[in-house]
Amino acid sequence: MAQNKRTIKKYPNRRLYDTEISSYITLEEVRQLVLDNEDFEVRDAKTGEDLTRSVLLQIISEHEEKGQPMLSPQLLSQIIRFYGDSLQGFMGPYLERSLQVFLDQQQQFRTQLNSLMGQTPWAMVNELTERNMDAWKTMQRGLLDAAAQITPQGGSRGGHKKTG
What we know:
The protein is built from five helices and four strands. It is α+β, with helices and mostly antiparallel strands and 164 residues long. A four-stranded mixed sheet has the order 3-2-1-4.
């Protein structure tokens, strides 16, 4: 049976080695694997122990230190309080399901917003531009038709000359 998971080995010097591309990678590249929905695991190069969770927590920790944090001190404190609690085993699955519901609702909202807006903002700009061009062409045609109705002598075509 072929193994589908990409294996990344973590060495004692804290370097990460991606066995699929035979190259060392950074934590930011591991983060990109997550963003790309790649299925991978991080293993200790010596013992084979699964270190995936600790590497993912390290990525979260680094991103929490930079810019706009997602996890407030209150939320982190509440999570810490669940360790050792009788409900600890329920917390992980609960958070996973809650996050999945949030992601499903977010996708549903984006779908509805896109249908209201007619696909994408760029498509809206293109449609507006096409309508403006059509209106401009119609106006030009009207001006050219009106100009064609006037003869070079200043009279109108098909009209009668005044006689007096």
